[in-house]
Specification:
25 helices, alpha/beta, 11% strand, 5-stranded parallel beta sheet, 14 strands
Length: 568
């Protein structure tokens, strides 16, 4: 019962009181029973967490949820649910000591050590979470339609949904006024979320399902009184068992999996600018370089935040962005089914840049990389050399970048890193031009090197390597073994998705350049603004005409869809 667990806690939270393993076991059992008595209102599934993450991470967010990660700062920095706030129960050192005690001395000793470490700061932890929840409710929106009368849901999780998150959730419900807080433990914790992320790319699916979050009131008032909540909720659970599955089924949001359109091309053709232009035009775009805080080359740090996310967190960010866009696409298609206006040809597609297995230090999830290689359409952007050089100078040697005192030395160091690939003579010549401020000549000297790299990426060499991997490992691993890897691991060894591999007869009809792709590689020509009637409206005549390129990409996509044979 709540009262007995609360009595136990009253004795435990006093810094001067003794703590025994037996008492801690009783408290842990009491917390588990109290939360179990609350049933579904005290528990959240990973689908609920995913939806909350999408809500909290959206640029135009007005989230009705707060995600609280009570893991240690080190665990959180390695990777976390996008949109979550870290309110750690243990420091990294405390967590290490508790873990060692658990491994060597058992659960009881670890519980005692953990309680002694956290009880001096429990009030502060609870108050911080309550303060965040109150602030979120106060700022939920200016319109009555934007703000629900119910309090925001607070999703609390640790690594596996164990004692850390359960105890914090129990404390929150005990400390908050009745009916003022809806706090839930995420079943499976961050581990379940990571499983969701890692299996997101197992194979291109015709549909994916996320359950709708159930609307339930706070149980704070229920747990705060001495009624027979265990008996009542047990009866309710038994009575509702038969209908629960039906409700879950009816509450499913079945999403058609979006198709992937890759925007590729040699360096300097304006791929990133095109993607941002497509996004401004209302298309679904995942900016991998933006999420990775790196442009992918030796100079990818320019104009980006100083630190990249870990590969694990990068994978989390990409997966949540995919889920968000997929739901937007499905909602838009549902709305236009009865609308007289036809949806844009870009609906149902997600645009991504043609990246390699790594974006800086971030590894692209092997499953996502394979999905990109299996994309039905690759738009290969081609631009005049002058436009490419101008784009590179604007992107990497703009006045805003050169105003940083460390920029020139960092650029010099980046050129030096290519010495082994360029050769000493070429590398030194580029460094001299960099020091002289001849940035266009530096860009020109690097094009040959980067053009060769991209041509290999677009062509057959990578697929030949992957075909060999499939031959030796694919059947052993069922074709999806690479998805079980942590995203921080080397992405070069990912397995090929056998189900997504096109038929041999179809592959044989492709050119040697396009055989690396399952889909069609279509050339799309970019233009400089100098061709326009206004001459570029004050821009350098060689600058990329982004609007024209966006229009050309959308026309290419429309033509591709028009050529496709309808499925009977």
């Amino acid at each position: 019962a709540m009262s007995s667990t609360a009595d136990l806690f009253s004795g435990l939270k006093d810094d001067s009181s003794a703590v025994s393993a037996d008492v801690m076991e009783l408290f842990a059992s009491g917390v588990k029973l109290d939360l179990a008595a609350g049933g579904a209102e005290c528990r959240a599934e990973v689908d609920d967490l995913v939806r909350a993450s999408v809500s909290c991470s959206a640029a135009d967010r007005n989230p009705d949820a707060l995600i609280v990660d009570v893991r240690s700062p080190g665990e959180f920095s390695k990777g976390h649910v996008p949109g979550a706030v870290n309110v750690p129960l243990f420091t990294d050192d405390e967590r290490a000591k508790v873990g060692t005690a658990f491994a060597k001395q058992g659960r009881g000793v670890a519980l005692v050590l953990g309680m002694k470490a956290v009880r001096p700061k429990l009030s502060k932890i609870v108050e911080e979470i309550l303060h965040r929840a109150r602030a979120k409710d106060a700022n939920c929106g200016t319109s009555p339609h934007e703000c629900s009368s119910k309090p925001s849901v607070v999703y609390v999780h640790c690594w596996r949904g164990g004692m850390r998150s359960s105890s914090v959730t129990w404390l929150l419900l005990h400390a908050a006024p009745p009916g003022s807080l809806d706090a839930r433990v995420v079943r499976g914790g961050y581990k379940a979320f990571r499983r969701f992320v890692l299996t997101r790319w197992e194979s291109p699916r015709s549909g994916s399902t996320l359950t709708r979050s159930s609307s339930s009131s706070s149980i704070a008032s229920t747990l705060s009184n001495n009624s027979s909540v265990l008996e009542d909720n047990a009866n309710n659970a038994n009575n509702g068992a038969g209908s629960s599955g039906a409700n879950n089924v009816s509450g499913h949001l079945v999403c058609k999996e979006p198709r992937v359109c890759i925007v590729g091309g040699r360096t300097g053709v304006g791929k990133t600018a095109a993607l941002l232009g497509l996004r401004n035009a209302g298309c679904a775009v995942i900016d991998l370089e933006g999420l990775a805080s790196h442009s992918g080359s030796a100079f990818g740090w320019v104009g980006r935040p100083p630190c990249q996310p870990t590969s694990e967190h990068f994978a989390n960010l990409v997966a949540m962005e995919w889920v968000r866009l997929a739901e937007q696409i499905n909602k838009a298609e549902t709305l236009t089914e009865t609308d007289e206006a036809s949806p844009s040809s870009a609906w149902g597609w997600i645009f991504l840049e043609d990246e390699g297995p790594h974006v800086g230090k971030c590894s692209v999830d092997p499953g996502l990389f394979q999905r990109m290689r299996m994309a039905p359409l690759v738009v290969n952007v081609v631009a005049p050399r002058g436009t490419r050089l101008r784009t590179l100078v604007e992107d990497y040697a703009h006045d805003s970048h050169r105003s940083d005192p460390s920029w020139r030395d960092a650029m010099d160091e980046s050129v030096g890193k290519l010495r082994k690939r360029l050769g000493n003579e070429r590398a030194e010549a580029l460094r001299l031009k960099l020091r002289d401020g001849d940035f266009s000549a530096v860009a020109d000297g690097l094009l040959e090197y980067y053009d060769g790299l991209y041509d290999k990426h677009l062509g057959t060499k990578r697929v030949e390597k992957r075909e060999k991997q499939k031959g030796f490992k694919g059947h052993e691993r069922g074709g999806d073994g690479g998805d079980e890897k942590q995203s921080g691991e080397n992405a070069e060894g990912d397995a090929v998705d056998l189900q997504a591999t096109p038929a041999t007869s179809e592959k044989e009809t492709l050119s040697s350049e396009a055989s690396a792709r399952a889909g069609k590689v279509v050339e799309c020509r970019a233009k400089a603004v100098g061709h326009r009637d206004d001459g570029g409206a004050g821009k350098h005549p060689d600058s990329l005409d982004v609007d024209d390129l966006v229009g050309a990409i959308l026309k290419t996509l429309a033509a591709f869809e028009a050529e496709e044979t309808p499925v009977a």
